[in-house]
Specification:
two-stranded antiparallel ribbon, mainly alpha
């Protein structure tokens, strides 16, 4: 029993590392594409390790199955949301960060305001002006 508890603690500590790494990536990376990548990858691994730790403590097979199902559903939702945000950024013309955008120094890239990226658009053809569409 003590081995399972130690292993659970190790898995949770590793999950914490990945959650913190994803958060640091979200705050420190220069553009929306690299931020999305860092956040979704690290959070998915962190959640997987957390679910695995919880599976070790589960009392029945149905609990293990439910935890696994939750993890699979969160993976699918995370990938879908990441794709939608990235696709919308691309559609609105948000350019990926490069050293050329930052003048070669590597850190002066203008940040993308997520609020502007996520403002609602209307049904119709996109005309490229402030996220609005033509009727």
């Amino acid at each position: 029993m003590i081995v399972l508890e130690v292993l659970t603690g190790v898995l949770l500590a590793a999950a914490l590392f990945f959650f913190v790494s994803g958060t640091v990536g979200l705050l420190r990376f220069p553009d929306i594409y690299s931020r999305l990548h860092a956040l979704t990858k690290a959070d998915n691994v962190g959640l997987g390790l957390t679910v695995l730790a919880l599976m070790l403590q589960a009392e029945s097979g149905s609990e293990v199955f439910k935890l696994g199902l939750i993890w699979v559903l969160v993976l699918a939702a995370s990938a879908t949301v990441c794709f939608l945000i990235g696709n919308e950024a691309y559609r609105r013309g948000v350019k990926p960060w490069t050293h050329l955008h930052a003048g070669g120094s590597g850190r002066e890239s203008a940040p993308v305001e997520l609020g502007k990226l996520l403002e609602p658009t209307h049904v119709g053809c996109y005309d490229g002006t402030k996220g609005r569409t033509s009727p």
